[in-house]
Specification:
single chain, 354 residues, alpha/beta, two-stranded antiparallel sheet, 45% helix, 7% strand, elongated
């Protein structure tokens, strides 16, 4: 015997006409929603397809697009959807942290500033000692002590590279994060980096330009020219301290490893020690690689540290293939999948009708 409270409620039966009416209302609602979504997606995707330059055109063209048509926040969302464009592998990277011989790297900046290169190694004796001690060198504060490269070119960290080069020479080893992007040329790599910066910025914020400050470029200069340039800075203040002070020179004389590295005699004067260091450093800097083919003007260089989340955010997005910086821009099956859903509802409605 069943108690009344335990009985199951009887389901209300509806006829074919009522069910068809419910389905058709749902179809109408889906169509309305799909029309809005597809139209919006098509509009934005079309904007990107028509205006985004091929990465081989370089970071300047990419920056112009990102700060023009690409400043639309919806476009930025498309750019940040590289893993949803129907071709996951097209921007796929093989990132890894490695140790790299600095003589095997080429800069992508057209200028390397002397003072930024020698400030730490020639002002802080502990920095100099560490840089010539051998092994893989991590240059910079913890968490930001690796440079960013892609194959054999430098993307970020030029002056940390040149700083180590100044005292360790081309055989020095530096800790680097290799993006492992499919493209290895400078133009495409830096264009991808510009898109990576844009993908981190909210609300269509402009992709920043590098500020060019008057400096002392050493790329392409002879050993003699660079030596004279260093002499002009001896005793002057840098961001790290006084360059080649008398105290610094005396420590170099008294330290066996440093004296041997720079061929400084034990009975040398401070001035002799300074000259020995200057000649060695000038020789090293004159041997630096020249900029890779396709390197842009300084104002078009990507400013990874200005991204939301800094260098780490851009590196992470690029290394995971999240940045949509080349064709295809969108997954072609997106609209067809929506059509399929709608078609199934329509067929259901038709079956009920029949």
């Amino acid at each position: 015997m069943h108690h009344k409270s335990g009985r199951k409620a009887t389901a209300r039966r509806i006829g074919a006409r009522e069910l068809r009416s419910i389905i058709l209302k749902e179809v109408s609602s889906i169509r309305e929603q799909l029309d809005i979504d597809v139209e919006l997606d098509d509009e934005v995707i079309d904007l990107v397809v028509k205006n985004m330059p091929d990465p081989s055109q370089g970071p300047g063209k990419m920056k112009d697009f990102l700060n023009g048509p690409g400043s639309d926040s919806r476009v930025r969302e498309v750019i940040a959807a590289g893993r949803e464009d129907g071709s996951i592998d097209d921007e796929a990277a093989a990132p890894q942290e490695i140790s790299k011989r600095i003589g095997d790297l080429a800069p992508t900046q057209l200028d390397i500033d002397l003072t930024k290169s020698i400030a730490f190694p020639l002002s802080r004796f502990d920095s100099l000692k560490k840089m010539i001690s051998g092994g893989t060198q991590r240059i910079g504060p913890p968490g930001n002590d690796t440079i960013v490269i892609n194959g054999g070119i430098i993307v970020d960290g030029h002056h940390r590279w040149s700083g180590l080069f100044s005292v360790a020479g081309p055989d020095g080893q530096i800790a680097a994060f290799d993006l492992g992007l499919p493209e290895k040329d400078a133009a495409s790599t830096l264009a991808a980096a510009q898109a990576g910066i844009a993908a981190t910025l909210d609300g269509g914020e402009p992709v920043p330009s590098a500020k060019v400050k008057p400096g002392t470029n050493i790329l392409g200069k002879s050993q003699e020219d660079i030596a004279n340039m260093i002499r002009s800075f001896v005793g002057k203040k840098s961001q790290a301290g006084e360059i080649l002070s008398d105290e610094f020179a005396q420590m170099a004389i008294d330290d066996d490893a440093v004296a041997s590295h720079f061929d400084i005699d034990r009975d040398s004067t401070a001035e002799d020690a300074k000259e020995a260091i200057i000649e060695k450093v000038a020789s090293n800097l004159a041997a630096m690689s020249q900029p890779a083919e396709g390197s842009p003007d300084r104002t078009d260089m990507p400013q990874l540290d200005k991204a939301k989340g800094g260098v780490e955010a851009v590196v992470g997005a690029l290394s995971q293939g999240e940045v949509n910086y080349k064709q295809p821009i969108a997954q072609e099956s997106k609209e067809s999948n929506s059509d399929l859903v709608l078609e199934r509802w329509q067929k259901l409605a038709g079956l009920i009708n029949g």
